[in-house]
Amino acid sequence: MEVLYSSTRDGEKKVTASQAILQGLSEDGGLFVPDHIPTLAVTMKALADKSYQETAYEVMRLLLTDFTQEELKDCIARAYDSKFDTEEIAPLVEAEGAYYLELFHGATIAFKDMALSILPHLMITAAKKNHVDNEIVILTATSGDTGKAALAGFAGVKGTKIIVFYPKNGVSPIQEKQMVTQKGDNTFVVGIHGNFDDAQTGVKTLFNDRELAEEMAAQGLQFSSANSINIGRLVPQVVYYVYAYAKLLKEGKIADGEKINVVVPTGNFGNILAAFYAKNMGVPIAKLICASNENKVLYDFFTTGEYDRNREFKLTSSPSMDILISSNLERLIYRIAGNDAKKNAEMMAALSSGGKYSITQGMREQLTDFYGNFADENETAARIKSMYGNTGYVLDTHTAVASAVYQKYVADTKDQTKTVIASTASPFKFTRSVMNAIDPKYDAMGDFELVDELSKIGNVAVPKAIEEIRTAPVLHDHVCDKTEMKAVVKQFLGIE
Ligand SMILES: *Cc1c(COP(=O)(O)O)cnc(C)c1O
Hints:
Layout: E1 5-7, E2 10-15, H1 17-23, E3 32-34, H2 44-48, H3 52-63, H4 69-79, E4 92-95, E5 98-102, H5 112-116, H6 119-129, E6 135-141, H7 145-154, E7 160-167, H8 173-180, E8 187-193, H9 196-207, H10 210-218, E9 221-224, H11 231-250, E10 260-265, H12 270-280, E11 285-292, H13 297-304, E12 306-308, H14 329-336, H15 341-354, E13 356-358, H16 361-364, E14 370-374, H17 377-391, H18 397-413, E15 419-423, H19 431-438, H20 447-458, H21 464-469, E16 478-481, H22 485-493
Parallel strand pairs: 5-15, 6-7, 6-9, 7-8, 8-16, 10-11, 10-15, 11-14
Antiparallel strand pairs: 1-2, 1-3, 4-5, 12-13
Helix pairs in contact: 1-6, 3-4, 3-11, 4-6, 11-12, 17-18, 17-19
């Protein structure tokens, strides 16, 4: 059955999957959501013998129904190839009784690669299908990882340009180096004076700027988004939860039908929403455990039913989760409001004017699958140290937040359900924070000295993504104020 997409703020208009991918965000500012979530057509037992690519096809064909079999298989083959340093694409590592789903084996060693290595191919295919001749301009705000993953995905892709805004002082040194050394004539990287929420708000404003859209159209250009608000990001992320379950089954770690819990270190709520969709497609998942860092808006939301962004924004050692407006939560709100676009739009209007909204008791009752908690900076560092001390396995800071929250969950609930923890970044991406957590003496070392030391103590080779930036020249040095984003975009695009 065909899946169509409508906006979370307007239930009337429906578009195809390819149109939703091309557009990114709906014109009314809402996010595209599927009109129903289909059930997997193959059993977990059958999936257990499939490769990552085959699993991806089984999932994506159900949600991206206007793509042909050839188109999807072609996109999948181009995305999940030797850019990943393991044929498994997303290996599971058992440590201290939980299963770490390593989502960082792609080109930029963070989980964003899982979706961003396929999004450019989906987007170009979508443009062809819809007879769009305009050049697609990808406009992206990043808290560090999306930016590089999107740049790597779109660099050199014909018919596209990509502009990335990042908070100048809000990303790790390695993350910044990865972005500003990006090659490719179609890539633009700009630091802004502001935090991630400023960058994201600025980008959303540009998307909704009609005047700019017209000026661009006159030049044969149109915007799309590589942020996790794009359904083309979300759908590929459903895949690895299906894959992880099938893999556990194959390895005899779980019985067929046995429920598992999933822990996700969360920022914009994209990854955990994908796990929720996987559950809705029939993957036996019990609890969805939402792990936050000190920016614990989501924890407060799950415990009180009130979403309130009016608070101090904290820079932490897990910068990709330093977010106070979790965009993808809107898709869940819409859903628990009974797919009521009007009710959702009212809450989002309250969020944008007063910075907060409350959900009803009836909506709260639909959140029982979710558990929220958070880990502060000390708990996160302590988790990295104890995991390393106990097992020799080195966690990155984001995964450590998830791991610490999982410990709190078990202490709280005594739930012994087998658990998959989304491991969202390589520790090499956050070397300084990781090494300092293991031993403060490392703080005296330089960034790349630390890389070599981590390789030694963790007994893992330095990833190619890190080797590449060691000596790479800086190619992007633009910095602007958050009020200047529009001018910068126009300048890059050559619009007077
Ligand atoms: C983006 C990111 C997250 C947060 O994922 P969301 O989908 O935004 O919730 C967590 N960890 C890492 C390493 C990331 O890059």
